[in-house]
Specification:
Number of helices: 9
CATH superfamily: Glutaredoxin
Oligomer: single chain
Strand order of the largest sheet: 2-1-3-4
Shape: globular
CATH architecture: 3-Layer(aba) Sandwich
Radius of gyration: 16 Å
Structural class: alpha+beta
Mean pLDDT: 95
Order of helices and strands: EHEHHHHHHHEEH
Largest sheet: 4 strands, mixed
Distance between the termini: 6 Å
CATH class: Alpha Beta
């Protein structure tokens, strides 16, 4: 039986942001953060992103506003959505373990709370500066083949576990998809 919950995420997902904010309230639970590249996962699963369907997109915007308000989470739909999250997700993998939480919080908040355009290199660099991460080293590291391969492998592993979107929680080999399924994953963990 598991003593943790695997949490599959991509910063590009507003629901992953909401789930992350909910996770932060559960200090006594171990969450194993699993970064993936959502665009790559969708390609593997042959899924079209809701971002490219105006009806689904409109519903997602309304839903995220509703859910975040109900959960007292500061949220603003990003006016530059969607962007390519590849460099952000590679960055999460490439930064040192002791900086990963701060990196994640900073980039999630910048995109889903502060409406920053993270495809803009100046905005991206400013965030790295606030985290005391050297820009030159960072942009060099995300181009390293080992970092690229790790994100590819994490995404492929997620697909093999039948993850098709984010956020997804897995505990005791049971899959719970969506920010609204966090409580189900917690119940499964507590039933051990």
């Amino acid at each position: 039986m598991s003593n943790h919950i695997d949490f599959y995420f991509d910063i590009i997902s507003p629901y992953a942001y909401i789930a992350h904010k909910k996770i932060l309230k559960h200090k006594n639970i171990v969450f194993n953060y699993k970064p993936i590249y959502l665009g790559g996962l969708h390609k593997l699963a042959e899924i079209d992103s809701p971002a490219f369907n105006k009806y689904k997109l409109r519903n997602n915007i309304n839903d995220c506003n509703l859910v975040s308000e109900k959960n007292n989470i500061k949220f603003k739909w990003n006016s530059n959505f969607p962007i390519n999250s590849l460099n952000i997700m590679r960055g999460y993998i490439s930064v040192s373990k002791d900086k990963q939480n701060d990196y994640l919080n900073c980039f999630f908040d910048a995109y889903w709370r502060d409406d920053q355009d993270l495809s803009n290199i100046e905005n991206f660099s400013k965030l790295l500066n606030t985290l005391n991460i050297d820009n030159d080293e960072f942009f060099k590291s995300i181009k390293e083949q080992s970092v690229k391969d790790k994100l590819i492998k994490l995404t492929a592993d997620a697909f093999q576990r039948e993850v098709f979107g984010t956020p997804t929680f897995i505990v005791n080999n049971k899959t719970f998809w969506g920010q609204d399924r966090l409580e189900y994953a917690l119940e499964e963990l507590n039933n051990n």
